[in-house]
Write a structure and sequence with these properties.
Elements (H helix, E strand, L loop, with lengths): L3 H30 L3 H27 L19 H28 L3 H30 L4 H11 L5
Helix pairs in contact: 1-2, 1-3, 2-5, 3-4
Bound molecules: MU-OXO-diiron (FEO).
């Protein structure tokens, strides 16, 4: 059985992952409306990844005999500014998710819940990858700042992302 305090924190985290999916779906739609088809595709894949993360938590909790206590997901904005601003917001969001995962891990240690510690290790590594992936995009967009054609090249490049 998952300790009560840890179970409550896992409940919160499911909504954080769904909230991230919701945010990236909104960003995808915004990019699409601005004809950045590639970034829109990238965000759509990101949306799918976040839903997959939420599912991992739901399935893990079920495997421990715990039903998720569902929370409201925060509605995202409809517009996110320039591609640079949108990806800076994405990076900030991923850093927030990383901090949440680390906090969950520390709680699993404090509660001596070994299975949850092991379960969370995949997410600790995943967040390193997530932050690196988005940092690269932010840096490449910044490098292209003085060359308007470059953003269209990056849009095309990142549109190659697949699930
Ligand atoms: Fe599920 Fe991007 O953190």
């Amino acid at each position: 059985m998952i300790p009560e305090k840890l179970k409550a924190a896992l409940d919160e985290h499911v909504s954080a992952e769904v909230g991230a999916a919701y945010l990236y779906l909104a960003m995808s739609a915004d990019f699409e409306s601005k004809s950045f088809k590639g970034f829109a595709k990238w965000m759509r894949v990101q949306f799918q990844e976040e839903m997959a993360h939420a599912l991992k938590f739901v399935d893990y909790m079920l495997s421990r005999g715990a039903l998720v206590g569902w929370k409201d997901a925060k509605a995202p904005a409809s517009t996110f500014g320039t591609p640079l601003e949108a990806f800076e917001k994405t990076l900030a969001h991923e850093k927030d998710v990383t901090a949440r995962i680390h906090k969950l891990y520390h709680l699993a240690v404090a509660e001596s819940d070994l299975p949850t510690q092991l379960f969370l290790q995949w997410f600790v590594s995943e967040q390193v990858e997530e932050e690196a992936r988005v940092t690269e995009i932010v840096e490449r967009i910044r490098l292209s700042a003085d060359r308007p054609g470059s953003i269209l090249y990056l849009d095309k490049e990142y549109g190659k992302r697949t699930a």
